[in-house]
Amino acid sequence: MSGVKSFEPIYGEAVASGAGDALAWHTQEGGTSASFLALELEELLVDTKPHAVRCAATMAAWKALGHDESGISFEFEREWIACRNSPPSTPDSPSSIPRG
Fold first, then answer.
1. Which of 21, 39, 54, 68 has its CA 20 to 30 A from that of 96?
2. Residues ≥6 apart with Cβ < 8 Å to 30
3. Helix (H, G, I), strand (E, B) or coil at 4
């Protein structure tokens, strides 16, 4: 395992974008702002691609914000993308949250 700093030129934008997606969904649901610090990144040469790192960062941030894994799903259309699953509707909440 190499230091996170050595991966920043390759995956930094993907990590920031994935964490940003999770934070946007979190704040749309009334959550407060937060910041993240990536302390570890493991690269598998056979399958680590920026889009997979973005998905991993989205899920890691989502869970760090106190949400359950079931709130995020992943779809493949030429690359992996994280999608926000609509939370269950309640009388006081909107029926869906924008995905993607």
1. 54
2. none
3. helix
Alpha-carbon span 40 to 21, nearest angstrom:
19
pLDDT in tens, 5-40: 888 898 999 999 999 999 999 999 999 999 999 888
Which pTM does this prediction carry? Answer: 0.80
Q: How far is CA 8 from CA 18, 50, 68, 82, in A?
A: 14, 11, 27, 21
Burial 64-73 (b: 16+ CB within 10 A, else e): ebebeeebbe
Model confidence at 90: pLDDT above 90: no
How far, in Å, are 29, 35, 36 from residue 65 at the CA level?
12, 10, 10
